[in-house]
């Protein structure tokens, strides 16, 4: 099972064993990772699951689709490596993925 | 009243609002006992997918739950499932359970949600007549969602139309009956109504507006036909009722708490009893950006009030209020709604209706009060900001797609 590490804005790391096919958001929710609220349950409608993806994984994670990109255009504190974690599916390729949650979501 | 030293909090109803209240109480540092009493067999789960991906069979059941069972144990939340609360005894500060026994409380959060309005016609109790509110409803409906089956949906609201889309995609023959002259009449404008009527017809749904159901006809207790008030009979293997909901206010009413088509609460989700809060579909609340009160039926509202109640109990500052929002998925069309359009005096359409990518903005006295955004996330999000700030934006500007929503929002800020 791939491991994903969630990092707080203040640097606290939480490595979590994730299930293939679930999203990075769902993995966080199930494991009570703070900083990811996911109010809309993954419908790409709320942007409360915003994360920063570790630069070294940007290629593997891929590009956001149009809906997600538009949501990101209006989210707070967006950077080039911003993604909505409900739109990233866990797979073996993402083993070792590191994502940081924005301070505004805490 | 300071409740931050409460020892026993009882949450009645394990849905979206109840689950949020429990999470927020722990998040805000509450250390006493929490008992979550819910009359469904399942731990709290999301309802929106029930008429969308889950109904279609594209989402596994375990992905519906807000939290796994272990979370409740780890956070010392006692869950009493398949248990109904039958009474709130305010004099003795006790919640009485249907199966006997009681729970003492220092504070209560009523999160009893709502229930589908039953079809007010003869034959509503026939076999294969369904409603759609919970997991157990989908359990009954799903085995019948087979290609070729004839489904009649009563009520062209969001849930009815979403179910129609799923059923068509699974190959059922679908008829939608709507009493009003247009679909979604209660919740949106004619522009959006016609869009959805056309969309469903394009996908082969027989959408009948102005068609009132007269009765349901069956043979040997099993449904065979939906009969219109006009006398016309439509063959049906199953009927799905989607004619609105009734808020579950009976516990509150019986306890003497003021209700008016919902349990009346203040800005902090508090009822007239300082120890009793209410959150979600069952409440009538002040609508922050609209200077009136109202009852909302949405995930946004359930979450917000769950948080408000927890914050008030713990004496925390009131969490920031969001502008109401909602969404609906039908076929490959995503509708995102921000704000409340009731009472608008002007509609501005931006984008291309034919291309199924457009937004309808609703204004009142020049101010933007709501948007229905179809496959148009920037219009949705930018409008949330504009609505909350009470901005006035020129209609020509809103309609002009050469000016981005980002620019419009920035200019109004
Ligand atoms: C099929 C469907 C699709 C939807 N889609 C969307 C959508 O796309 N977007 C959106 O924003 N909203 C949507 N909604 C609405 C949203 O799900 C509700 O607004 C939300 O669930 C309300 O949360 P709640 O906690 O108030 O009520 P509920 O989630 O209904 O929870 C209330 C719970 O309390 C229980 N209960 C009631 N009385 C008692 C009692 N006396 N004792 C014990 N337990 C009791 C009920 O059985 C229920 O489990 C949808 C709803 C449905 C049914
Ligand atoms: S959970 Fe709402 S956008 Fe990701």
TrEMBL record, chain A:
<dbReference type="InterPro" id="IPR012675">
    <property type="entry name" value="Beta-grasp_dom_sf"/>
</dbReference>
<dbReference type="Pfam" id="PF00111">
    <property type="entry name" value="Fer2"/>
</dbReference>
<dbReference type="InterPro" id="IPR001055">
    <property type="entry name" value="Adrenodoxin-like"/>
</dbReference>
<keyword id="KW-0411">Iron-sulfur</keyword>
<dbReference type="InterPro" id="IPR001041">
    <property type="entry name" value="2Fe-2S_ferredoxin-type"/>
</dbReference>
<keyword id="KW-0479">Metal-binding</keyword>
<dbReference type="InterPro" id="IPR036010">
    <property type="entry name" value="2Fe-2S_ferredoxin-like_sf"/>
</dbReference>
<comment type="similarity">
    <text>Belongs to the adrenodoxin/putidaredoxin family.</text>
</comment>
<dbReference type="InterPro" id="IPR018298">
    <property type="entry name" value="Adrenodoxin_Fe-S_BS"/>
</dbReference>
<keyword id="KW-0001">2Fe-2S</keyword>
<feature type="domain" description="2Fe-2S ferredoxin-type">
    <location>
        <begin position="2"/>
        <end position="105"/>
    </location>
</feature>
<protein>
    <submittedName>
        <fullName>2Fe-2S iron-sulfur cluster-binding protein</fullName>
    </submittedName>
</protein>
<keyword id="KW-0408">Iron</keyword>
UniProtKB/TrEMBL annotation, chain B:
<keyword id="KW-0285">Flavoprotein</keyword>
<dbReference type="InterPro" id="IPR036188">
    <property type="entry name" value="FAD/NAD-bd_sf"/>
</dbReference>
<dbReference type="Pfam" id="PF07992">
    <property type="entry name" value="Pyr_redox_2"/>
</dbReference>
<feature type="domain" description="FAD/NAD(P)-binding">
    <location>
        <begin position="8"/>
        <end position="306"/>
    </location>
</feature>
<dbReference type="InterPro" id="IPR023753">
    <property type="entry name" value="FAD/NAD-binding_dom"/>
</dbReference>
<keyword id="KW-0560">Oxidoreductase</keyword>
<keyword id="KW-0274">FAD</keyword>
<protein>
    <submittedName>
        <fullName>FAD-dependent oxidoreductase</fullName>
    </submittedName>
</protein>
<dbReference type="Pfam" id="PF14759">
    <property type="entry name" value="Reductase_C"/>
</dbReference>
<dbReference type="InterPro" id="IPR050446">
    <property type="entry name" value="FAD-oxidoreductase/Apoptosis"/>
</dbReference>
<feature type="domain" description="Reductase C-terminal">
    <location>
        <begin position="325"/>
        <end position="408"/>
    </location>
</feature>
<dbReference type="InterPro" id="IPR016156">
    <property type="entry name" value="FAD/NAD-linked_Rdtase_dimer_sf"/>
</dbReference>
<dbReference type="InterPro" id="IPR028202">
    <property type="entry name" value="Reductase_C"/>
</dbReference>
């Amino acid at each position: 099972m791939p491991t994903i590490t969630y990092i707080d804005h203040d640097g606290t790391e939480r490595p979590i064993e994730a299930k293939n096919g679930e999203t990075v958001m769902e993995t966080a929710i199930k494991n009570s990772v703070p900083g990811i609220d996911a109010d809309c349950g993954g419908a790409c409608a709320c942007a409360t699951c915003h994360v920063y993806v570790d630069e070294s994984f940007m290629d593997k994670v891929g590009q956001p689709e149009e809906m997600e990109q538009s949501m990101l255009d209006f989210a707070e504190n967006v950077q080039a490596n911003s993604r909505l974690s409900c739109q990233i599916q866990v797979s073996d390729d993402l083993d070792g993925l590191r994502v940081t949650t924005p301070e505004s979501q805490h | 009243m300071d409740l931050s030293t409460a020892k026993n909090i009882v949450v009645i109803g394990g849905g979206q609002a109840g689950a949020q209240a429990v999470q927020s109480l722990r998040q805000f540092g509450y250390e006493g006992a929490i008992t979550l009493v819910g009359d469904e067999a399942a731990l709290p789960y999301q309802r929106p997918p029930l008429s969308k991906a889950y109904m279609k069979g594209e989402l596994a059941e375990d992905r519906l739950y807000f939290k796994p069972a272990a979370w409740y144990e780890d956070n010392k939340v006692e869950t009493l499932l398949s248990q109904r609360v039958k009474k709130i005894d305010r004099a003795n500060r006790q919640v009485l359970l249907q199966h006997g026994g009681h729970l003492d409380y220092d504070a209560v959060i009523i999160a009893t949600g709502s229930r589908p309005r039953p079809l007010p016609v003869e034959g509503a109790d026939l076999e294969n007549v369904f409603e759609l509110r919970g997991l157990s409803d989908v359990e009954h409906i799903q085995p019948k969602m087979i290609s070729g089956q004839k489904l009649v949906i009563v009520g062209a609201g969001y849930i009815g139309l979403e179910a129609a889309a799923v059923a068509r995609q699974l190959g059922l023959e679908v008829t939608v009956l709507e009493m009003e002259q247009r679909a979604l009449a209660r919740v949106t404008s004619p522009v959006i109504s016609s869009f959805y009527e056309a969309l469903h017809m394009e996908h082969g749904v027989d959408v009948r507006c102005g068609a009132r159901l007269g009765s349901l006809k069956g043979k040997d207790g099993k449904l065979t036909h939906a009969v219109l008030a006009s006398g016309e009979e439509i063959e049906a293997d199953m009927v799905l009722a989607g004619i609105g909901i009734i808020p579950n206010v009976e516990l509150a009413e019986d306890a003497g708490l003021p209700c008016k088509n919902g349990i009346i609460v203040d800005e902090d989700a508090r009822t007239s009893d300082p120890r009793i809060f209410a959150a979600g579909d069952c409440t009538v609340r002040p609508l922050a950006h609209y200077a009136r009160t109202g009852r909302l039926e949405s995930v946004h509202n359930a979450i917000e009030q769950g948080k408000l109640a927890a914050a008030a109990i713990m004496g925390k500052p009131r969490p920031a209020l969001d502008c109401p929002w909602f969404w609906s998925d039908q076929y490959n069309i995503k509708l995102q709604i921000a704000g409340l359009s009731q009472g608008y005096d002007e509609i501005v359409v931006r984008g291309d209706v034919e291309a199924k990518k457009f937004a309808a903005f609703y204004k009142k006295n020049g101010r933007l009060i709501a948007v229905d955004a179809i496959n148009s996330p920037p219009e949705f999000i930018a409008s949330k900001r504009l609505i909350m700030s009470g901005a006035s934006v020129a209609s020509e500007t809103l309609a002009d797609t050469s000016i981005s929503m980002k620019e419009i929002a920035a200019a109004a800020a």
